[in-house]
Amino acid sequence: MTDKSINLTEYLIEHGIRPSFQRIKILQYLIGNKDHPTVDDIYQAVAKEVSTLSKTTVYNTLTLFTQASIIKGLRASENEIRYDPDTADHGHFKCKKCSGIYDFAVNIDTLQSDALAGFQIHEKGIYFTGICPACMENKTNSKSEEETK
Predict the structure, then answer these.
(1) Is the pTM of this model over 0.90?
(2) pLDDT averaged over the chain?
(3) Which of the ends of the chain has fewer CB neighbours closer than 10 A, N or C?
(4) How many helices (H) and strands (E) would you count in the chain?
């Protein structure tokens, strides 16, 4: 779900979800923020606009959205789940320096493993960790600055 022109009320109804004001605002935030926000990120941002919002409502709404397959939860670490409104197959890269999560295109259906013969696969995902180009550039620049001192 990435099209901003879609009517969010109708979209939620089509997915069997009652479109409350809070649910619409949470979905609107997710669509407008491609940085794979956490529950805390979502709560802090949406609570500025919806003063009656509770963190429990955010959790429950994200669970409902995930069950309806309109968002995906992404386990970014043992203690952190981030949320992605892009439900199409794609991979993720998490930078160990800045904690940014980046999407990348990949044809997950072409990845095969004989070791999975006989398994029923319910979800597929590609997840890499490392250092992003911006952090690598900063590291290079930091070294250059230190060398000139």
Answers:
(1) no
(2) 88
(3) C
(4) 5, 5
Within a domain: residue 116? Answer: no
Main-chain phi, psi angles of 148, to 5 degrees: -85, -5
**C-alpha–C-alpha distance, residues 3 and 9, integer Å:** 14
Query: What are the tens digits of pLDDT across the range 117-143?
Result: 899 988 888 899 999 999 999 876 665
Q: What is the largest distance, in Å, between two alpha-carbon atoms of the chain?
A: 62
Distance of alpha carbon 83 from alpha carbon 34, whole angstroms: 9
Task: Tell me the CATH number at 22.
Answer: 1.10.10.10
Sequence-distant (6+) residues with CB within 8 A of 53 are: 22, 25, 43, 46, 47
50-90 residue pLDDT tens: 999 999 999 999 999 999 999 999 987 778 899 999 988 89
* Both tokens assigned to 118: 């006989």
- Which contacts qualify for 15-18: CB closer than 8 Å, 24 or more apart? 15/68, 15/69, 15/70, 16/68, 17/64, 17/65, 17/68, 17/70
- First and final CA of the chain: distance in angstroms? 50
